[in-house]
Amino acid sequence: MLARDEDTDHPASPPPVVVISAPTVDDGVECSRLAAESKVLDLNSRYAYLLWCRDFGATSVVARLGHEDNPPIGFVTGYRRPDAPSTLVVWQVAVDAEARGLGVAGRMLDALAERVPDIDHLETTITPDNEASERLFTAFAERRGAPVARTELFSADQLGADHEPEILHRIGPFAA
Q1: Residue 23 predicted with pLDDT over 60
Q2: CA 34 to chain centre
C-alpha cells in the first residue's frame, strides 16, 4: 500500500535522501553561513568554522540533500572532552531553514554518535529559551534509553551581554 498525503489522494513524496559525512575544510564556509542564518547560534568567525572542519572533522558531521557533492544543509560540530575522552561535546547544531522538519538534526546526531568510537556520554549546553534544542536532545536521549542530567554550566553573569545561562545537558551512559 502506498503512503498517502492526508489532504489529497496523491501518493506521499518519499523523504529526501540525506547524506551525512565528515566535513571537509571547504564545508567551513557553508557552516559559517548556516550558523549566521540560524539567528539563534552564537556566530563565530568564518576562520573558526574552517578550523573546526579541519581539526575536528572526526567528531563533527555535515548533512547534504541527495548527493555527497551537494553543499551542506546542516552540521553538527563536536569534540571529545580532553579530561573525559568517552564524552562527546556537541558545540553547535544547525539546519538550513528549507530543510527543517525533515528530521535532519536528529539524524545527524545519531550518525555522529554512531561514528565516534568509544563514547558513552554526550554533553551540550542549551539556553532556557531554546525549546527546539531541548526537544532534539531529549529525543536523542530517549532513542538511546539514556538519562539526562541538567545543571547550569555558565551563568548569565559569566556570559555577559544579556546572554542567558547555558544549561549543561549530560546524556548517558549509553551504548556506543
Answers
A1: yes
A2: 12
Taking 3-state DSSP, the helix, strand and coil percentages for the chain, each rounded to the nearest 5, stand at 35, 30, 40
CA pair distance 91, 114, nearest whole angstrom: 17
Q: What CATH number labels 18-171? A: 3.40.630.30
> Which of 67, 90, 85 has the alpha carbon at shortest distance from 137?
90
Q: What is the pLDDT of residue 5?
A: 34
Q: Hunting for cell 534509553 — which residue is that?
A: 145
Condensed to tens digits (0 to 9), the pLDDT of residues 85-122 reads 999 999 999 999 999 889 999 999 999 999 999 999 99
Whole-angstrom CA distances from 79 to 87, 91, 112 are 8, 8, 11
Mean pLDDT of 43-55: 96
Within a 13 Å sphere around the CA of 127, how many CA atoms are in the beta-carbon half? 12
SS3 5: coil
Torsion of CA 84, 75, 136, 37, to 10 degrees: 130
Q: Where are the domains of the chain?
A: 18-171
